Amino acid sequence: MLKPSETAYVPFVSVENMMRLVLYVGVEKMLAELAAEIERDFARWPLFDKTPRVASHSDIGVIELMPTSDGETYGFKYVNGHPSNTRQGLQTVTAFGLLADVATGYPLMLSEMTILTALRTAATSAMAAKWLAPQGATTMAMIGNGAQAEFQALGFKAICGIAEVRLYDIDPAATAKCARNLAGRGLKVVACRSAEEAIMGAQIVTTCTADKQYATILTDNMVGSGIHINAVGGDCPGKTELHRDILLRAGIFVEYPPQTRIEGEIQQLSPDHPVTELWQVIAGQAQGRTDARQITLFDSVGFAIEDFSALRYVHSRLKESGLFQRLDMIADPDDPRDLFGMILRAEAAKAA
Prior knowledge:
Layout: E1 10-13, H1 15-25, H2 27-43, E2 54-57, E3 62-69, E4 73-81, E5 95-101, E6 107-112, H3 114-132, E7 139-143, H4 149-160, E8 164-168, H5 172-182, E9 188-191, H6 195-198, E10 204-207, E11 214-218, E12 228-231, E13 240-242, H7 244-249, E14 251-254, H8 257-263, E15 276-277, H9 278-282, E16 296-299, H10 304-316, H11 318-321, E17 325-327, H12 339-351
Parallel strand pairs: 1-6, 7-8, 7-10, 8-9, 10-12, 11-13, 12-16, 14-15, 14-16
Antiparallel strand pairs: 1-17, 2-3, 3-4, 4-5, 5-6
């Protein structure tokens, strides 16, 4: 691991280098390795600082900061969510993140996180399904075929062994895009005309829609016994995807309850409705799926520890891959007490 004492520059992973890293590692391998990194951090969950993300909401979107630390390394992510951006040709979600050394406070790495967030979200979804989905699941319905869809499909293929993905989006062009991008990736891809058609024969249902509203993507009568639901799209106050009655029938698993009760599907329920924290299942402190007929729900809103894991994973690949740039972010005077002297030397050099 690069240390701040080793260098006066901060490694920066640009969008271009993140794409190169994905190709260098391989998409599915990177998803699997990210899931393993996230799982390891979930297993040591009590060591982390935890707080709901700091959010600034508006009528059209949200801007958030997501910080955490394990006592040795600090990390945060800046991320937005603006569903109407696509109408202007812009991304719904953009993000960047930073790692820092707790002992010195010096930054260790700055990285793009728009692509990395899509990867870590899919890796977390599939990691949760590994613990919660019915055994032998081979088919997933993917409802909402926007920017996350391909990552989710490939994550479930790599980590859970999904062989068929059934696609539905209210925009047929999104479904066509997703099917085209997944062609030749080793999945049977079925484009469907309705959500009801998409979930036929699926043991796992992933919902990942963008509109910031109380929506009913899945109604209660659509969900039979034994299904695992991966609810990704409900990730801020006033935004849900599932009918409340589904929640009342399901075993609900969450990342961090104080955040999920504000932002997740369970904002529809009373504050004391029982939920299980996923880290407890991974650490052997709680039970996951209890029987083959149980409906399990991963109410995923995204949590800072997942971003921390993803940033650490990328950081671990820097020396090996060389896929970073050097940013001159840290003032490095000869005498730490003489910061102004740097300006004087620059002035002298300019005058020379």
